[in-house]
Amino acid sequence: MKFAVIVFPGSNCDADCYHVVKEVIKKDVDYVWHQEKDFQAEYDCLILPGGFSYGDYLRTGSIARFSPIMNKVIEFAEAGGLVLGICNGFQILTEAGLLPGALVRNKELKFVCKDTFLRVENDQTPFTSDYTKGQVIKIPVAHGEGAYVCDENTLKKLKENNQIVFRYSTSLGEVTASSNFNGSTDNIAGIVNEKGNVLGMMPHPERCAEAVLGNDFGKYIFTSIVKWLEGGAPGGK
Amino acid sequence: MENNTNNKPWVELGLTDHEYQLIKEILGREPNQVELGMFSVMWSEHCSYKNSRPVLKNFPTEGPQVLQGPGENAGVVDIGDGLGIAFKVESHNHPSAIEPYQGAATGVGGIIRDVFTMGARPIALLNSLRFGSLTSARSRYLFSGVVAGIAGYGNCIGIPTVGGEVYFHPSYEGNPLVNAMCVGLLEHKDLAKGVASGVGNPVMVVGAKTGRDGIHGASFASEELNEASEEKRPAVQVGDPFMEKLLMEACLELIKTGYVVGMQDMGAAGLTSSACEMASRGNSGIEIDVALVPRREEGMTPYEIMLSESQERMLVVPQKGKEEEVKAIFKKWGLDAVVVGKVTDDGILRIREGEKIVAEIPAKGLTDMCPVYEREAKMPALLAEVQNCKLNDLPEPANYQKTFLDLISRPTIASKEWVYEQYDYMVGINTVIRPGADAAVVRIKGTKKGVALTIDCNSRYVYLNPYIGGKIAVSEAARNLVCTGAKPLGVTDCINFGNPEKPEIFWQFKEAVRGMSEACKELNTPVTGGNVSFYNETKGEAVFPTPTVGMVGLIEDIDKVCTLGFKDEGDLIILLGENKDELGGSEFLAMYHGLEAGMPPTIDLEKEKALQDCTLELIKNNLIKSAHDCSEGGLSIALAECCMASGLGAQVTLENDLRPSALLFGETQSRIVISVTTENLKKLKEITNKYAVPMSKLGIVQGKSLVINGKGFSIDLPLKEIEARYKGAIPCLMRD
Amino acid sequence: MHKARVYVTLKPSILDPQGNAVKNGLESLGFADVTDVRVGKYLEVSLDVVDKNVALEQVEEMCKKLLANPVIEDYRFELVEG
Amino acid sequence: MHKARVYVTLKPSILDPQGNAVKNGLESLGFADVTDVRVGKYLEVSLDVVDKNVALEQVEEMCKKLLANPVIEDYRFELVEG
Ligand SMILES: Nc1ncnc2c1ncn2[C@@H]1O[C@H](COP(=O)(O)OP(=O)(O)O)[C@@H](O)[C@H]1O
Ligand SMILES: [Mg+2]
């Protein structure tokens, strides 16, 4: 089983994701440079890390989306491979059309770095089988443009297909306006594509995968992926 | 007068007649315009330290832990395992006063370059900020712009901003202070220096292209601010953190190759300072052809190229023959790397434009030969009166509970969450103690270790008595580190004062450095580098003297890190140190009585050292569950902070005959609030006895309220209410 | 040589918190008559293309591909001789 | 009712990192003829002011006070009937 962390110029959570895969869940992982036109190895899961690819100039993720490697990422995703986009990675995935909607400036217009609570809305994805539906997890966010927006039709589809994976909530799991700190549509913090093999989320699971950093709620995204890749059906606990 | 200036172009550039004479002697002729420009920036206070060098000599700079002391781009201390910590602080006060966002952002960019130039990967940023009162719209504008600028740069480049401090005081209204500190991790073998050596080695400019920005920024930083400062706006540059991220990765990759002989960032005075400083340190010369420097704009003159302060550029001297390897690395990151000259052996900085020589100056003429001034020092006439202000007969507050709530809502004391939530303090996944504590702690992956980081200065103390204030600044920084379980290793300082040509300012400066030096000696924290920023004045009024102290400490076992929050109900709350009747210089005195007067709290360095050693031993032996320094706002505020950090209340009884205001709100030094289980009390006493550290029982951890009782006072408040005031104060003021 | 002036604005249906903030800022400075503010992007793209129609085509494509995100933004542009 | 279209651009000598990134982005998309890109702000300010001259004056002042930072930016604007 092998992971790849895609590195764009300006990525800055690449080493963090790499660390968690290699040192916390102890799986093989490579860095893949954005200029590559092809993968040098077989990968089972691609991670698009957080950061400020191309300085996040123009729009977040807009320039990275055209990096040479992105054609392979799209191909990989369309063939059903697992792709996890975190923060800037989520933004790139929406720009690339692998996930619907877009991420715009936080409603208060400020960058926000803090712990948030998420309610797990879907534990049937390859990324969330180690959680249970309705579980509340504490995960940090750090972004200036993380408000998820989409049109009504898209929102309807997201709901119908159970594509909303995480919502911002209170510590008790109530999805309220006050827990929606960045002004996302319907408190959305993370979604999957229709097929369920591409997850984009604004919060940073790699920042809370070790107890020494506060908690390890985030680790279970990675262990879920491993479980799924090892053949356990999603949700099968 | 006007005519005079016209005949003397050097005067307009900030040089004196005497200095001009010296320049002629150094050159053996009249300087041309380019040369004069180069001298003027290098001999500005900002680059030359001509007014401060003799005083700075008093700092202790040596110790077994010091791998690199002052003189390089950053200092380095050893943390064992073949690893070192590079760290440095720098001011960006004047640019931030004119354009807060970009001024602060480029300040962060500059200090990051100083650190990775040493071969260290930056792992943390801190900042120390001072603004006028938040009731002024301009202060709010500067404050929000500066914070956004620091965030904009640090977040984008991906270095966590883990700590800092913010004070609000009217003396900073016209001249805010913005000090940025960067901390990096290096392997001893990668330690790089800003030295040009090896005749024939190429000199390369790497990174961003050179534009017309920031010409004379260094001189600008060496003047008082006035209305005309607005006219100097081009001295402000725009930062490009994305470019710097690429530059940083490329430089660190380059250093790993072992091809680098020397490397230096282009900060103040740009190509001029980096070239002459590298040559000067290497006892060599450098020859540069400005025609080869990649440019952003057309038609730039040699003068402009040599003085441009365009950001995100470095000067690199690699081994001869490795030019192509260097270029390949930079190309991968999409950056220019161009050979613009070579190292020579004649000690001359020679600038050509194609075939034409446009400047020829002994490199040391620009650096070491800058004149040094022993300024006159005189205690300010009115200070004795201020110090002698009678504080003994002041009326006591009518309602201690209300006073407590007012105090905890003072912007200087209140939570700085509004600030640090805008900083990405977690990127890099090393931040074990986040902002909001005594000191930040960053783990060192691959080891059991961590480093604790802080930056501190109470400038009101320094104003009231610079000698004592200087001692306290160092002591408090060390105490903050100790509260996390870290052993203090070394200091970087940023001295922000008024115009040193005024004897009163120079006196403050000398006295503060004297106090800091004594404390650094006693606490074994040598100074490894720093920065001096003078001329922080508006309309002739200086800011409070502000010598900020950045400090790094080592935690041997990250699992033993200690935090400030109470941990479990029933634990005993204990005070290490003594309460005294000291209200001088306190925030309470300023708030309630409108007085900034008296003597600052006393400090006994030997006792301070004993307290710190004692606390470290307690933490090392797992005897205590929390530790928190008592600082602004005094014991009551410290207790409240311990409660809020964990959401656990406290029942406290202060049995003491001091007047309540001093007991609750006085800022007596050398005090730490700890918590401990009843079982460990005996062992704790053994250790405090060993160090002769006074200890007294304050109460127990309990409930969801903070209750403090004593003779003649009673505070009983739900934590929710305290927290609302503490966290709400700054957001509330910023909402206007 | 041509220069394109490109205007990228948020779709009317998308909230514009930045516009609101500017409006509030203007109000607190005493500009009481401001009824609405929208904030968008303005780009100047210089093109080394002689034929105007070629330039127009190229800019249209740039906007579609990169300069605007059709999910949230509208664009328009004009060409001037550069 | 008037609407002001305000254009805020970085001064010519000021570095425009965003413009550079967009230029490089366009180049890597194959737009080889792009010689320069500058990115600025575009604001639409709606004003409940009848007199055109009053509106002009107000917008001028808004630009000076808030919309542009004269240290690094230039501005221009035009009025249209809103
Ligand atoms: N307050 C100070 N205390 C100790 N050393 C200082 C102080 N100020 C400056 N220095 C040292 O003097 C040297 C020159 O400083 P500076 O001009 O700030 O460096 P740079 O050339 O990177 O701008 C540095 O090595 C710095 O560490
Ligand atoms: Mg330097």
Structural overview:
The complex is a heterotetramer, with 1 copy of chain A (about 240 residues), 1 copy of chain B (about 725 residues) and 2 copies of chain C (about 80 residues). Chain A has one domain: Rossmann fold. Chain A is about 20% helix and about 25% strand. Chain A has helices spanning about 15-25, 70-80, 90-95, 150-160, 220-230, and strands at about 1-5, 30-35, 45-50, 80-85, 100-105, 110-120, 135-145, 145-150, 165-170, 190, 200. Chain A is globular, with a radius of gyration of 16 Å. The relative contact order of chain A is 0.17. The mean pLDDT of chain B is about 95. With about 725 residues, chain B is of the alpha+beta class. Chain B contains 27 helices and 28 strands. In chain B, about 35% of the residues lie in helices and about 25% in strands. In chain B, helix 11 runs antiparallel to helix 14. In chain B, a hairpin with a 6-residue loop joins strand 1 and strand 2 (about 75-80). The mean pLDDT of chain C is about 95. Chain C has a single domain, classed as Mth169, Chain: A (2-Layer Sandwich). Bound molecules: adenosine-5'-diphosphate and magnesium ion. The site of magnesium ion (MG) has 4 residues of chain B, from loops.
- Per DSSP, the total helix count of chain A is 5
- The helix tally of chain B amounts to 27
Sheet having the most strands of chain B: 7 strands, mixed
As a percent range, the share of strand residues of chain B is 15-25%
Secondary structure category of chain A? alpha/beta
Label this structure with key terms:
heterotetramer, A: 237 residues, alpha/beta, Rossmann fold, two-stranded antiparallel sheet, 5 helices, 21% helix, 25% strand, globular, B: 736 residues, alpha+beta, 7-stranded mixed β-sheet, 28 strands, binds adenosine-5'-diphosphate, binds magnesium ion
Task: Give a concise summary.
Chain B is of the alpha+beta class. Chain C has a single domain, classed as 2-Layer Sandwich (Mth169, Chain: A).
